[in-house]
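Review box. Two proteins, two foldings.
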Amino acid sequence: MEAANLIVSAVPHLRLSADAGDVEAQALLAGVLLDYVDESALPLAFEYAVAAARAGHPAAQRTLGFMYLHGRGVETSAFQAEVLFAAAARAGDPYGAFNLAVMHVQGTVRFPDQAECVRLLRQAVDGGVGQAAAVLGDQLSAVDEDAEALTWYVYAAERGHAGSMFAAACWYRDGIGTSVDHVQAVRWYLTMLDRGNGDGIHEAIQLAKQGMPDEQIRAAGRLAGKEAEAELLITTVRRT
């Protein structure tokens, strides 16, 4: 509890407000303690999360759901996590919606149909959860809604999701959900380097070897902000 007390002592008015029953303060402290303090803070985080969740605070419901889902300071309970995430989602919390959708994707929760999962993911994306766009792309792809799936992969890729960059690149390369576009394909393969991920380089080389004009490779490099890498790609391909 020493670490927990140190962090709450840094914001004494917040602690006083939480202890006096301020729901917003309770929800905020629960999240801070869970995210930024070690295991010693979990009992206090749980106490504040329970109090705020019972008062209907969606962020606290989501925090408490996370604790139940992962057994943080409480015995693991997927059922309790589902109930809490669902309550948070109904109250408009985008992360609660995302967490509940992911439980469905992972098979922990079963919805009557796929439409509910897609609806929750749309809610999450609309609420600013960028990662939800990648999962939404996967779910739409699974039901052959490829054109819309690609738009969400691109949306997530533009926000730095490396897996979506790779998916978008491969789909542009193969013409899935769109017409074949090698410039966009190489663009996203090269952009993956920004995330420290070089998995797309082999595919970019293979595309370039298939007769992709130098100017198209340079165009892809400009879109990716990787002009030097595009020139290196051209040099590498032309030498082989």
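Next protein.
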Amino acid sequence: MTRLPLDTFVHRGALAVAIGLIAAGASQTAREPGVEHGYVRTGVLLWVVAVTIPLLQFV
């Protein structure tokens, strides 16, 4: 039986949370145009970090 490493679950969980924050922020902005983009910015930042950190092992 092959098992996935814990790092894979943490990475996928971080990406899921990031995409959820982007979706929540975009939904809130669509309903109320005057709302700040806090969730979207946080989600994008988390997504960029979650995608970039695994790539640093190849540098």
